[in-house]
Every structure is written in C-alpha cells, then in structure tokens.
Amino acid sequence: MTDTYVGAIDQGTTGTRFMVFDHGGQVVANAYEKHEQIYPEPGWVEHDPVEIWENTKSVVGRALDEADVEADQLAAIGITNQRETTLVWDHDSGDPVHNALVWQDRRTTDRVEELEAEDKVEWIRGKTGLEADAYFSATKVEWILDNADPLKLEASRPENLRDRAEAGELRMGTIDTWLISKLTGNVITDVTNASRTMLYDIHDMDWDDELLEEFGVPWSMLAEVRPSSDEDLYGHTDPDGFLGAEIPVAGALGDQQAALFGQTCFDEGDAKNTYGTGSFFLMNTGNEAVDSEHGLLTTVGFQRSGEPVQYALEGSIFITGAAIEWLEDVDLITNAAQTAELASSVDSTDGVYMVPAFTGLGAPHWDGRARGTIVGMTRGTRKEHIVRATLESIAYQTRDVAEAMEADSGIEMGQLRVDGGAVKNNFLCQLQADIIRTGIVRPEVDETTALGSAYAAGLAVGYWESVDELRDNWHVDREFTPEMDAARADRLYDRWGDAVERSLDWAREE
C-alpha cells in the first residue's frame, strides 16, 4: 500500500486543514488555511460557510500538490469538524441562508434560561446526555429560522424561513453535514455529530420528535444519521469536481470524538484530552451511556459499521488555546511559543488567577453568563505572572473535569493521553501533570483529530483491516510525570475555585 493513502479534512474553529496519512499513520501531506472569525455583537460568533468550503477545496488541492500525490491515490476521505457549529442552507441552490453560528456563540442564552424556568433541563439531559446550553445546535437553528433576515435572500424567496423549512426547502446541519453535502451531494451526518445537536436521543439513536417540536425543527431539514466509520459509504466525490476523481467519503466524527479514535481509545476507561481553541476531555465508557452527576456530558464516542455504539463521558472546556490567542490579541505575547519562556521565568503567578470565561464556563460549572476574570493582581504584577496564570488556568480547568470524570465513572485514571496544538508546550504538559496528579502521555502524531477521521474512513474501505493495526501505529513522543509537591498542587487548585466563583453570573444586562 505504498502508493495509496487516506485523506482527512479537519474543519476546525479557526481554520481548515487537510492531511494525508500513509498505512503507518504517518503524515504525508498537510495544508492549513484560517478563516475569518465574525463577531457581530458581544458574545456572538459566526463563520461564513462559503469561505469554509472554498478553503476546504484550497487546502485539499495544496496538500496533494505539495506532496506530489494524485487524488486517485486516496483510498478514502474522512471528515472531522467543529461539532456544534450550525448552519441552514437552501436544499436546491446549496446557498446558506445565514452565517454559521459557532459553538462558542452565546446569543441564545435567554432561550436556555427559558428552558431552565420551564423545568426542561432534566428532560433534555435524559434524552440527549447534554446540558441545556447555548453551546449546542438546537437553539442555534431555532434562532436562525426566527431571526435570519429574509430580505437578504433571493428575491424569489420572500416568505419567512420557517415557512420554507416546513415546505422542505431548507436543510440544517453541523459542518460535517455541510462538507459531506458539498463533496457528495448527500445530506448525511454521523452519530457523534448528531449527538451534539440537542435534537438527538442517544439511547434510541434517532432524532427525537419531542425535541424537534420544542425547537421548531421539521424532520425534512435533518440529515440521515450514519455510523462514524461506514462501509456503505456516505458517497463519492464528483469526478468532474475540484478533485477530478471519484473518491469514497466513508468516515466522519466530531473533532473530539475523532481525537478519541485517533488516540486509539477503543476500550472502556481509555481517556484523552485535546487542547485546541477549547479543551475536551473524553473517557470511553463502552456500550453504556453513563449518566453524569457532576456536570459532565454523556455523548456518543463513535460507531463502526455493524457494531454497537461506544459512548463517552465528556468535559467540555470552552476556552484554553483561545486564552493564549487572547494574550496575543492584547499584545502580552507576540506568538504562542513565548508562553513557556515567560511563564517559566517566574516561580509562581504571585497569587494571580486568570479565569478565561470569555464565552461562559462549560463543564462542570455550566454558567453561560460567567465572564473572563483576572484576580489577585498587585502593583508588582507583570505580564509574566498573567501569562503563567493563563497556562495554569488550562491545567486547573482540566483538573475540574478529571475529578468529575473519576467521580462519575468510578475509574481512577493511570494516565491521560493528550493532543492538540498546545501540547507542543512542554511547560504546559509538565504543569498539567503536576496539577492533575497523573501521567501525561503525548503521542508522536499529535494531530490526532485528523488522524481519527482518517482511521474511520480507512477502516470503512478496508485500507486498515482492524483496530489492532491502529493500536500498533500509536507511538509515544514523551511522558510527563508529576514533580510538584502534592500539597502545593492542592493548595493552588483550591484557590482556583475561589477565582471561578468571582467569574460566575457576570454578564447581566442592566
């Protein structure tokens, strides 16, 4: 199989990547392009779906060209994506009716509070495994149908969007569905992405009539839900399209489940944490959907063709890597690589804590009105202290989730597999081991999100025969073990809880 490969489209929050992997799971080609972050109002975050599609075509072509790989050498293509980000488009024309509402977007917080006031939170959690939160797709599609300006649409379509949705003219989906539709013409999603919409019953494994009615989403808008690794295929690329070849599209997973798959967390109790724009800590719970009593999400981990669903517990941390980007935005650093040097230049934060609740707090706090907070500053506080406090906030938030994970699962983790851009920072990895009090294991290939979707697609078409082959591909780059005194780590973490309290329920309208 030296002349064939598997491709992975990794459509993330800040940009789109295309990677090509060989049979050993090694990277053959890699191209990346950022897209615009649109902030129409405070707390609102949008992406242009057309820009995302154009960037997808661009990075696929560039990666293949740079690696001198022909499109027909791809045995399959897999897709992974920012999960809850939601868009609505015209089924006939394929044109979006509004920008995509990004998972970070908080404009529907009032709607979520209505659900809370109506005592519907437990009802929603019982069906979906999710907290009622603006994070998920249901309130986003509802907002688009109610608020997108029909005057911006074609003159021949003057009726409101709800009428058009009821007439079967519109489709909705997460970004995977949008890309699969563009690549194959088929409106398909996988079980992991469906499970993040707050419209899908993860026990019955189907769209839920009562939830669809609650949010006013007709069945005709919905994608067909398929396994994450699908031997029946989602479709093929158009041989007359931009690739010029008919390539099977055979796998899709939401980005965090893709990382779980790429980290070969195939067994109950296996856990990983991905450090990207946010951080997402998942533990495989096997064929059982474990209910959380500590603020975690119960979600679909993955499903292979003909096999039972594997579930996971998840701790969703909204802001980690984005906090480092904020340091750049306010000119405290010029690039992310500086953070390790600046943070290690001081022995501590000198009592400063940074709570990066820029878009609210996710697990285990679930406060959509929390906001970013820096506490403990004195006249002697320098940027080094703030940079270190920002890195420490990533470690503290991960410990919040780790403790909840152990309490819910009853499993004490021996080690945590990590991936994502931030894990290149050795200082952060060591700090994480110190604060969480467990071993941190970084693999050689840390782009495990793309790798996981490639594995899913490759398994579907027989490029890899079994998950044992994938386990053999996984290799450790470096392990980090706790070095900090445990009592000191506990003291620092306890004080973190005080800082979090000061960030809660801040964003109230006057």
From TrEMBL:
Q: Name the keywords, alphabetized.
A: ATP-binding, Glycerol metabolism, Kinase, Nucleotide-binding, Transferase
Do you know which InterPro entries this protein is assigned to? ATPase_NBD (IPR043129), Carb_kinase_FGGY (IPR000577), Carb_kinase_FGGY_CS (IPR018483), FGGY_C (IPR018485), FGGY_N (IPR018484), Glycerol_kin (IPR005999)
Pathway-wise, it operates in: Polyol metabolism; glycerol degradation via glycerol kinase pathway; sn-glycerol 3-phosphate from glycerol: step 1/1
Example GO molecular function: glycerol kinase activity
Binding residues for glycerol: R83, E84, Y135, D255, Q256
- Positions binding ATP in this chain are T13, T14, T277, G321, G421
Q: Which GO terms describe its cellular component?
A: cytosol
Q: Classify the source by domain of life.
A: Archaea
Could you say which residues bind sn-glycerol 3-phosphate here? Answer: T13, R83, E84, Y135, D255
Cross-referenced CDD domains: ASKHA_NBD_FGGY_GK
- The EC number(s) this enzyme carries: 2.7.1.30
Please report which protein family the annotation says this sequence is part of.
Belongs to the FGGY kinase family.
Q: What is this protein called?
A: Glycerol kinase
Q: Which organism is it from?
A: Halomicrobium zhouii
Gene designation per UniProt: glpK
